[in-house]
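I am still getting used to backbone structure tokens and would like to learn alongside you. Please make up or recall a protein chain and show it to me in full. Would you write everything just below, so we can both look at the same thing?
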Amino acid sequence: SSFSFSLMLAHLFCAGISFVIIKSFFDFQNAQEALGFYGVYHQYGWNQVVHFFGVPGILWSMLVFFIHIKLPFIGTTSTLSSTSTKPNNHYSSLNYASFIAICYNLFYAHIDKVGAVLYGPIIYMMYVSAYRTYQNDQKEAAAASQSHSWYGTGKPLQIALAVHIFCWYIQIHLGHQIIEGAQPAVLKSLGGALSVAPLFAFYEGLWSLGINTSLQESTRILVDQYTKEIC
């Protein structure tokens, strides 16, 4: 198998983002701390609505990219192969998408068991969607050529990149510059934003339905405290 420089860069990117996210998990001891940190930068209702739709798009597109890359030293030995003669079965080996999805679930279970139980199926569905997108593309690439690159036809990565950029744009420009009038949490902590945002956006939906409002109230108190400290 031939060495692929592009695949090596993809490994480094996935490993770097995974490290940043996982490292930030240790910054929060409970749900109030995590949601309070993120809530400081998302106090306006319409900005929360923007993030309710934007954050899942960012997470899904990240999983689509991550699922293309198997974890080093785990699974087959063709991890750094640029071409393949058949589509890979990522259920038989651990990839960055399954790894980071598991880490998210473990982190959420640590800080908030209720949130983990409710949000776990959503992360799983996102992973399944990313997997099917990846697998269908690999089959298409395999049918078109006896040997194909690790990224298949490249269409899923192009779609994921477009979704990723669009979701970041609407959150930063529309959500923060226009609606909130304040900097996004990602400028304070990239890892903190990536680790907490999915749960925060999910809880905004639950709170609008009157679910777990006690956590909402305790989070608001902490948001007020953090806001005063910043000011």
Observations:
- The two ends are 57 Å apart (CA to CA).
- Residues 75-85 have pLDDT under 50 and may be disordered.
- Residues 5-230 form one domain.
- Residues 113-144 form the longest helix (32 residues).
